[in-house]
Amino acid sequence: MSFEDKFSGADKTLVQAIQKHSKELKDGKILVIDPSSINVGYCYVEQLKIKSNGVLKLAAKDPISKRLASLLQLVSERWPDVDALAIEKIRGNRAHIYLLWSVGVTVAGAKSPVLFEIPVSAWNKMRGPTYTKSDTADARMMAKFIIGCLGGDYEQEE
After folding, report:
1. Between residues 68 and 6, which one has the greater pLDDT?
2. Given Cys at both, which of 12, 26, 139, 149 links 18, Cβ 3.0 to 4.6 Å?
3. What's the structural domain count of the chain?
4. Sign of CA dihedral 51, 4, 122, 11
């Protein structure tokens, strides 16, 4: 079974959309973000290999305007030239407005020519029995999903 065959419906359409960018992304840089206005999970991929991952910690006691300004600066300075940004797809009236704002600030900071919104339903199918939820783990799973879409080794470890 091919990687693409594991998915159906909207998730399969997303796989195909990512594959349309395979030429430029197989040798490119991809930033993957699990958004937040306090602890932002990230995973950085180069040439379909995970190079780093972790959490960008924003000061929870700071006003939202300061946290968002810090997030913009961190993303734009740390990853100034990514070929694609992948960010968790956030929708619905249950999403806090600060979370929605952090998505917009991250998109602005990355200045990426390619943007993918990755719904939890897409990468959730890839979780194994030892998966432990965290901001970093979610970003890594989204990165592995994209790596798989592009024909890379999505089961890799660092």
Report:
1. 68
2. 149
3. 1
4. positive
